[in-house]
Amino acid sequence: MISLQWLNLDTPGVFPPVEQAMKDPDGLLAAGGELTAEWLLSAYQQGIFPWFGENEPILWWSPDPRFVLFPDQLKVSRSLSKNIRNMEYRVTMDLAFEEVIHQCALQPRKNQLGTWISQQMIDAYIELHTLGQAHSVEFWQDSTLLGGIYGVHSGRVFCGESMFSKVSNASKIALFYLCRFLEMNKFELIDSQVYTEHLSSMGAGMIPRKAYIQLLKQAGPIDMPVSWTRAFEDALPSIKP
Question: Which of 181, 22, 198, 5 is nearest to 92 (CA)?
């Protein structure tokens, strides 16, 4: 039986090989470390992410299989396509990252009490956003933020962290625009980490962790504009359902 490894604070960002993750669907790999940009970016580059509840140590995971969505395989239902074309809304990128992550923390989750998006998590991902490594897509009606999604940019992979909706289809529409934008910029996939019925209905599926790690390594860096906001605005006229 593999025992849980505790990370050494003297060697920031150093994790055990993902193959050492516990042999269960969630893939618990290690505990400890810190939620700093250095630790987080190193983790994502290796196919590892943090996920833990209040009063728990920082826990790091690498599931096998991995739940992913290839942008060009996004499924857009007839009703969603109609909403994309006809609803009164606007979408933006990186204009309200902090509000999106706070709203995701407040979003009720099926079979889940409370939230794993603690203030410690919020602060860490806001730091990544400040460094240009975390991004959000926002769904607005008039001047009210009613949906969105945020995640971390690691090479040609976008690691989706969470989404929220206050009106029907708001997060799905945000995901649609994110997928099209990433596809236009030659991203390989969106890492959805663990299974959700919501994303499965939109085309996400399981791949072996080994295949995911290989994609992560082969994808390499990508040359993106400094301002994702401006790049997203420029891409909008070309995005159609």
Answer: 181
